[in-house]
Design goal:
Helix content: 10-25%
Distance between the termini: 55 Å
Mean pLDDT: 79
Radius of gyration: 19 Å
Number of strands: 6
Order of helices and strands: EEEEEEH
Shape: elongated
Number of domains: 1
Low-confidence stretches: 1-12
Strand content: 35-45%
Length: 82
């Protein structure tokens, strides 16, 4: 933790958080992405998968759920276009 005073003598505290960036693990040819992301929660770390398609993203506990999420979003887009 880093602390210092600014020009107005207000105490400012900066926290250094070492969080890993999401890692791309799957990108199907017809669109969408799945990233692996490690989240810290208390004393534990949780591995989550982020499924995204056309700007709609959601966290999932396993990669299969993330793939199903993307497939469902693709299907709903096809239905809306027709």
């Amino acid at each position: 933790m880093e602390m210092y005073l600014n020009m107005n003598y207000c105490l400012i505290i900066k926290y250094k958080i070492n969080m890993a960036l999401p890692e791309l693990i799957y990108a199907p040819i017809d669109g969408g992405t799945i990233h692996r992301y490690e989240i810290s929660g208390g004393k534990r770390k949780f591995l989550r998968f982020i499924g995204c398609y056309l700007g709609q993203c959601n966290f999932h506990k396993n990669i299969d759920d993330a793939i199903d999420y993307i497939k469902n979003l693709k299907e709903s887009q096809k239905i809306q276009k027709t």
